[in-house]
Amino acid sequence: MGSYILKRLLLMVPTLFGVLLVSFVVIQFVPGGPVEQMVSQLQGRAAGGEGPSAGGSAYRGRQGLSAQQVNEIRALYGFDKPPVERFWQMLKAFATFDLGQSFYQRKAVWELVKEKLPVSISLGLWTFFISYLIAVPLGVAKAVRAGSRFDFVTTLIVLIGYAIPGFVLGVALLVVFGGQLQWFPLRGLTSANWAQLSWGARIVDYLWHIVLPVTAMVLGSFAVTAMLTKNAFLEEIRKQYVLTARAKGLREKQILWKHVMRNALIPIITGFPAAFIGAFFTGSLLIETLFSLDGLGLLSYESVIRRDYPVVLGTLYLFTLIGLVTKLISDLCYVWVDPRVKFD
């Protein structure tokens, strides 16, 4: 196992390099970068408001600015250096986990990520725990009652829920429960006077605000886990050792929870680390935008739109690294859950 872990760790290096290289190359050909945006804004101010703020967002070249001024702007954003040198400097910074500084928000990328994490953690963790708490028992119940009316009805409900996009459900929840009935707030993670509330009132206020966004995210996320649990249990129930246990006179509950459960939950448990770690960095752009939640999803979208390249590449590096490590942990869980698995 030690050699396998070492190989996987070494393979992360070219994987990270490839992801960053492809992203960096693509960025070089994307129009409307920070230099062009700054030049356009300066031209708009010089022309008395004829710029992006006045509706003229098209870049018309370097009219009104000298070549020296444009070069100073390029140097300000680091575009005065060749692409190869800029890419190499970025790699050296990432090697020390220096993700750079945002072009527009004048903050370090690490600070921006830490600012947005509470929102994404709130949505991700609640979605993760609620999904597993619903999906696993539901999958077991469906497997035990396979072919029954309960199995048919729940499968229909799960598939319908899976087919409805989260943002469509979110709109419906906002219109019905936030607008017409006014049972839940329409926006934000807490109320404006949250700091003045008592601890008990703060908890109630927080839970009151996350009901609708978490519901919109949970509906589709638990469907895959529920069906996976059902199929895993059905496969184990049909195996020879279950028939042998029944022939020995063991009770069905004892067979199900003591023997079948240990083997059927292997695919669920091995995917648990990836789902749990991913919950900390879950960023749903549409849900966050719909409910006015300033999380990682909205940060990533705004960074791409505004061509804030340090934020784009810094968060890409961070999330890719976390994803690779989490994938390795998930693979190692196979051995922990089932010692029969051999990596060679």
UniProtKB/TrEMBL annotation:
The chain crosses the membrane at residues 9-30, 119-140, 152-177, 206-229, 264-291, 311-337. SUPFAM superfamilies: MetI-like. It holds the Pfam family BPD_transp_1. InterPro entries: MetI-like (IPR000515), MetI-like_sf (IPR035906). GO terms for biological process: microcin transport; transmembrane transport. Belongs to the binding-protein-dependent transport system permease family. This is Microcin ABC transporter permease. The lineage of its organism: Bacteria, Pseudomonadati, Pseudomonadota, Betaproteobacteria, Burkholderiales.
